[in-house]
UniProtKB/TrEMBL annotation:
Keywords: Copper, Metal-binding, Signal
Classification via Gene3D superfamilies: Cupredoxins - blue copper proteins
Annotated localization: Periplasm
Major localization class: periplasm
N-terminal signal peptide: 1-23
Protein name from the UniProt record: Blue (type 1) copper domain-containing protein
Species in which this protein is naturally found: Paraburkholderia denitrificans
Length: 171
């Protein structure tokens, strides 16, 4: 009986902690949970079966994203295989300048909140990577309302240190 009571107290404490952390999340982050229905100016998520090319990307602690190819054309479905070869966490995000402004602000707000730093993103255009980790992101570059696409790491300070690449999508 004592063990069951202790388990219930621990469960209640964990639920309370989770609910207070969730309540502190920035409003913008909550809006990102709705991106499944969001129209991006730079394309949309895609499925593995639709992949037309694979591009390998390394994120490193010299604050660089190194691509093995940067040739992307309208309509391509690209599987980005992203590896964090560094010793600190990194991100890989597909976006444009509007997404950059929004996401940098969101990351700064999250970093300032207890328990929020390093949190996974619900955004379909972002992967978070721990040191040594490899993840994939599959993106269809169609429809495009902008041909200027920004690939970046938005961990606070990383974008500002030059951890991004701009690519103009070809026809």
């Amino acid at each position: 009986m004592k063990m069951k009571s202790l388990s219930m107290v621990m469960l209640a404490a964990a639920l309370f902690q989770a609910s207070t952390t969730f309540a502190q999340m920035p409003a913008m982050h909550m809006e990102h949970a709705q991106h499944a229905h969001h129209a991006f100016a730079f394309g949309r998520p895609a499925q593995e079966a639709d992949v037309t090319k694979t591009i390998h990307v390394e994120a490193n602690d010299q604050m660089r994203l190194n691509f093995d190819s940067m040739a992307i054309r309208r309509g391509d479905v690209v599987k980005f295989v992203v590896k964090n070869v560094g010793q600190v966490p990194h991100e890989f995000a597909v976006g444009d300048d509007a997404f950059r402004r929004e996401h940098i602000n969101e990351m700064k707000q999250m970093a300032a909140m207890p328990g929020m730093a390093g949190m996974e993103h619900p955004d379909p255009n972002v992967v978070s990577l721990q040191p040594g980790e490899t993840k994939t992101l599959i993106w269809r570059f169609d429809p495009l309302h902008t041909r200027n696409v920004l690939f970046a790491c938005y961990v606070p300070g990383h974008y500002e240190a030059g951890m991004y690449q701009r690519i103009v999508i070809g026809d």
